[in-house]
What does this fold into?
Amino acid sequence: MTKIRTLIADDEEGPREQLRAALARLAPELEIVAASVNGCDAWDDCLEHEPRLCFLDIRMPGMSGLEVAQRLAQLAEPPRVVFVTAYGDHALSAFEAGAVDYVLKPVEDARLEHCLQRLRQRQAQGAAGTDGADGASEAGAALPAMPAATLELLRQLLPAQRPAMRPIQASQGREIQLIAPDDILFFQSDSRYTRVVHRDGEAWIRTALKELLSDLDPSVFWQVHRSVLVNSRFIASATRVDENTMQLSLKGCAEKLPVSRQFQGLFKGQ
It folds into this structure.
């Protein structure tokens, strides 16, 4: 049987390892592919490992579990999300009202087992619904993704307005160049640096793409590839090259940007 790829994320080592041990004990059908130490790493690890199930602590530095879940919902095949929350968390009553999967910290076996049983029931229902369908051979794929109602709940819980993004500071010799976010066409990262392409040229910064995400408005700056973040206001068109390949054309820029399979769901004809 193919195991369900699972990610856990908590910035505190004790609760993170407690959850890992409890899942290993109670749910041998799960394969822990990543144990992320903050929200930014959780998002990056999700893109790398493509888990079908994520246990996300709500309160993490960088990006909160709510923000990570909101970004996951934009993927072509979003994973199922279980929130890990402390007693008295502001979101708990909303989760109960919305029937969202969650477990309380410190994690107790009885509550976790109840959550796991609900997930198994959903997996069985999903598997029954895909009998005979193409691509149904992978056991992990039978676990239903995050429901639309959960995404709507996340939108209500997240702050209505994000703080204004500060200018990007790029060093050029002895000069510090300040680049206004509205002038940025896209960010493109490699293993060491991030390229910032803007209206008047380009610059290089040492900040990793995943660290920029926490300061950017996801409704404006769209991640379209693990190494590319684009200002949606500059997107002119999305072209499907073949069944698995898509490229973006930008206004005022001859360069084509790749769109990975995970993010092709962002571009649907209306």
User: Anything to note?
Assistant: The CA atoms of residues 108 and 199 lie 53 Å apart. DSSP finds seven helices and 15 strands in the chain. Residues 132-141 have pLDDT under 50 and may be disordered.
